[in-house]
Design brief:
single chain
C-alpha cells in the first residue's frame, strides 16, 4: 500500500467507536438491549442539552438530581400528551387562542 492509502485507512477499524459519543447507562440497566429505557419517556425527565453533560445524562425533576438513563425507577410516570399538557398548564398557565395569557 502507498503512504496515502495507509493514512486514509489507518482508523477505519475503530472509527465506529471513537467518533460517536458513548452513552453510560445507570447501574439499574443490566441488559440495555432487552430492558426499557424509562427516563426518555418519563414525565419528570429533562435532557438538559444546554449543560453539555453528554448523551444518556439528564435531569430528573422529581428526584432533583442529574442522573444517567435508568431502566428501573419507582418514580416513573409515562409522559402521555395529556399529562405533558397538564404539567405545562400548571407551570405556564392557560394560554387562550387570542395570544394572551389567562391565570
Amino acid at each position: 500500500m502507498t503512504q496515502l492509502a495507509l493514512a486514509v485507512h489507518r482508523n477505519s477499524d475503530i472509527a465506529g467507536t471513537t467518533h460517536t459519543m458513548p452513552v453510560n447507562f445507570h447501574p439499574t440497566c443490566s441488559d440495555v438491549k432487552r430492558q426499557r429505557l424509562l427516563c426518555p419517556v418519563c414525565l419528570h425527565w429533562d435532557p438538559r442539552p444546554e449543560d453539555g453533560a453528554g448523551p444518556g445524562v439528564g435531569y430528573c425533576i422529581k428526584r432533583d438530581v442529574v442522573t444517567r438513563i435508568r431502566c428501573e425507577c419507582n418514580l416513573f410516570e409515562e409522559a402521555t400528551p395529556m399529562k405533558v399538557e397538564a404539567r405545562n398548564r400548571s407551570i405556564y398557565g392557560q394560554i387562550d387562542e387570542g395570544g394572551g395569557e389567562e391565570e
